[in-house]
Structure formats: C-alpha cells, structure tokens
Amino acid sequence: MELKNNKILITGGSSGLGLEMCRKLLQMGNQVIACSRSAEKLSEAKKQLPGLITCPFDISEVEQCILLAEWIKKEHPDLNILINNAAIVHNTQFTSEDEIIEKSQNEINTNLMAPIWLSRLLLPVLETQKNPAIINITTGLIYAPRADYLFYNASKSALHAFTQVLRIQMQEHPVKITEVMFPVVDTPWHKGNPPKIAIQPDRAVREMLKGLEDDKPEIKVGGVKLLYWLARIAPVFAIRKINNLKR
C-alpha cells in the first residue's frame, strides 16, 4: 500500500493510537481527517497537528454516521482510505451492573456497527479513487479474551470475522480490506495505569505502517504474533496468561 498522497479518515483520531496514526500519516505526506465525538479533544489534537482536518461526529449513532458520510461526499470526495479505529470499553460485571444493556449497546455500536456502517456508506467514495482501502483496527484479545472487558472482546472478535468475510467478498474489488491487531498499548485508555507489557504508541503505529507498506491483509503488532500461536496451541493457557497480566 502506498502511504503518501492519500486522503485518510481516522475515527477516534483525537487521542491515543488514533492521534499517533494522524501524526505519522501527516508526516508521510498525507491529508488526514480525524473524527471524534469530542470537539474539545479534536481542538487539542489540532493544536498539536495544525495540518489536521477535524470533524466532530458521534459514530455510535447511525444517524451521525450518515451525516459524516454526507459531509465526506461533499467536502472530501477524494477520500481514499478509511481507518475504523474508534473504540470504547467498559470494565463491568454482567450480573451486577445496572446499566449493562446501555453499556453493551454503546460498545457494540461504536466498536462493531460503526465500522460496518461507515464502510458501506463510504464505499461509493473510496472505490472511485486510487489506492483505496478500508483498515479495521482490532486487538490480540480476539484470540484470548480478557475477563475485564465483557463487550470489548465480543465486539472486536465480531469485527475480526466481519473483516475476514468482507475481504473474501471484495477480492475482485479495488478496495483493499486490512485488519490491524494491536497488543496492549500505553495510551489514555488505561487512565495512567497500563499493564507492564504495554508498548508505546510510536512503536505500535510504526509496526502498523510497515505492515501496510508490505500489503499484509492481517497485521499482528507486537505480542499479538505470539498470542496468536499460543491461542492455537494452548488456548486455555493463553486465556489464563491474558487474565493474569499485572498492572
């Protein structure tokens, strides 16, 4: 994949891994649009990266995804890469959480449905451009779920399966379908208390970009490579290891 002279939309682009993607892709000579539900965070991101284009939409709502797609078609019809990066997580217990239904719906909409909606809504734009791609961001937890993240594991596993099937269905189509599986990364996600094995965003995104340049359909970043094989050989042990990670 050519990683310069693109116009790229990154959801969840105002902080963490998304912001690091914006930074590096701008440095490589691309136009980058960061989408986030937080106008305040987008404003802060813009201060760090003056060349960044920002748009505040809450993609957990299908109506907002439709508005985002309409805005792209009007203002940025030369968009050729969509990176579905936005995700949320709740550390919750299924039997004791009073708002379990609302939290599950919010996570599933953000982590799974929004990538599905945006991929379909923006496909007519992407497929008319050179070097078109949809890049879905998942996690090593699709191989060994962590008990703290009840719906995050499930939503990302579903996104993994969706991406695999979409790649098969679109193999005669010009739009490349890529999945990037990240390990634990030291971002604001962990509220200042990341697990000891967390890698830095700079390294995580560099590995992602290398995989994209090499045209890998599935990019396993950092420890995800080991977790993949461990989960295949000894799945119970892999789940135990993931759930014994120390902070």
Structure notes:
The protein is α/β, with parallel strands linked by helices and 247 residues long. It has one domain: NAD(P)-binding Rossmann-like Domain (Rossmann fold), CATH 3.40.50.720. It has 8 helices and 7 strands; from the N terminus they run βαβαβαβαβαβαβαα. The longest helix is centred in the middle third of the chain and has 27 residues, at 100-126. The N and C termini lie far apart (36 Å). The model has no long low-confidence stretch (mean pLDDT 94).
| Mean pLDDT rating | 94
Number of strands: 7
Total helix count? 8
Whole-angstrom Rg: 17 Å
* The CATH class: Alpha Beta
**CATH-defined fold name:** Rossmann fold
Within the largest sheet, what's the order of strands?
A: 3-2-1-4-5-6-7
CATH superfamily: NAD(P)-binding Rossmann-like Domain
Give the H and E element order.
EHEHEHEHEHEHEHH
Q: How far apart lie the N and C ends?
A: 36 Å
Write the layout of secondary structure elements.
Blueprint (H helix, E strand, L loop, with lengths): L6 E5 L4 H12 L3 E6 L2 H10 L4 E4 L5 H14 L5 E4 L15 H27 L6 E7 L10 H20 L6 E7 L18 H13 L4 E3 L3 H10 L1 H9 L4
